[in-house]
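Please complete every field before forwarding. Incomplete forms are returned to the sender.

SECTION A: IDENTIFIERS
Entry label: holo-265
Bound molecule: LXAUTJHC
Molecule representation: SMILES string

SECTION B: INPUTS
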Amino acid sequence: MADGSVVPIDRKVVRKFKTEEDVAVALAKYIADLSDKFIKVKGSFTVVLSGGTLIDTMRKLVEPPYLHGVDWTKWYIFWVDERVVPLDSPDSNYKLAHDGFLSKVSIPSHQIYPIHYKPGPQGPEFAARDYEERLRKLVEKKILPLSPVTGFPIFDLMLLGMGPCGHVASLFPNRSQQNDKKDWVTFITDSPKPPPPRITFTFPVINTASEIAMVVTGLEVSLATHVALKSKHHDFGLQGPLPVQKVSAEVLLTWFLDENAAFQQ
Ligand SMILES: O=C1O[C@H](COP(=O)(O)O)[C@@H](O)[C@H](O)[C@H]1O
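SECTION C: PREDICTED COMPLEX
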């Protein structure tokens, strides 16, 4: 199946498309529809971005009809992870999103919440604590609600990518951050993917999101995709269980795959 048809499996749907371009078209409509829905229901739309290939796959959202059809003034933007680099570094997830998305739409700047890192003795732990405190203040201001079920903040939509090792955000196989059940935001100093120091949301926060899109394209992620979607018990040589296998959403997790990523399905 390569037409984006939906295969529902218990709060998870897998949408397969022929090409990456088809994924980009469907992703833009999915995001715009959720924006309309959440703004109608609660007056705002809180969106968490990743780095990597996601921002390019979001490219259709900054084209007609969405460019002028989406109510950008009601959007609030957050990051699921950030590399510990200056915000203007080519490695920065903020810069990636700024250049490819945020600079093209009219989201008020005070509604954009990058993860701040200032070089110096305080290090990534300080940046993680700082982001968590800023999120807690947004809970106090009622911009973010707290889940009565999990006690973690609820974001409307989280847009995730996945690396070939099955990592999501900066939660990697064989790293303890993927088991953190207490913090909202944590840090890693030995990420296997460079740069090594990073800040990241923890799984309890990711999994409290209402909607999650797992946007996965390209042949190099096909094995991890196969492990995540077909097998609970086998890791086929990857170091399992993979972080991506721990992702779930409160309402719905939607996988967007192109034919290459879905190759081993
Ligand atoms: O390092 C990262 O990798 C993941 C996956 O990136 P992709 O290029 O394979 O799509 C990304 O989601 C994360 O935000 C980023 O920091």
